[in-house]
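Hey L., structure's done. Input below.
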Amino acid sequence: MDEELKNDLLQVDEGVVECESLEEPSAPEMLGDVVAETVTIEQGSAQNVKAETVTVNQGGIARAEGKFIDVKDGGVALAMGENMTVTDGGVVVVMADNVKMTNSVALFVAANQITGEDTRVIFDMRAAVVFGVVLGVVAGMISRLLGRKA
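Output:
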């Protein structure tokens, strides 16, 4: 990545890292690993983020770790933290103590408390365990059947 472009994307001020869209909003630059006390991503993306507070607005993160994670109109692939709020967004995997989702979707949620409205969670902890057991039984049966034919 060009150093001048990299300096334009990263604006560090008292532990705050921001990623703003540049002249080409259709192709925002993706940041790599970001470690700070507070991370705010506006119309951008990052690969790995580790911070006390993580805020995403119209962007995405591959892996986010933080005490407070807030996502609006964006998405996170893997989120791990104490408190997570998702509004009009999506998450693949959430591991948190408290999760609040509004108009959002998540594939897998492992949380002590899940609240929200107009939200769809595909797998909670119980459903994931049942899915894993059924998948294991089916895979075992298929391998035994294929093993006997060989």
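The chain is about 20% helix and 60% strand. Strands lie at 11-13, 16-19, 30-35, 38-42, 45-57, 60-72, 75-87, 90-102, 105-117, 120-123.

-- N.
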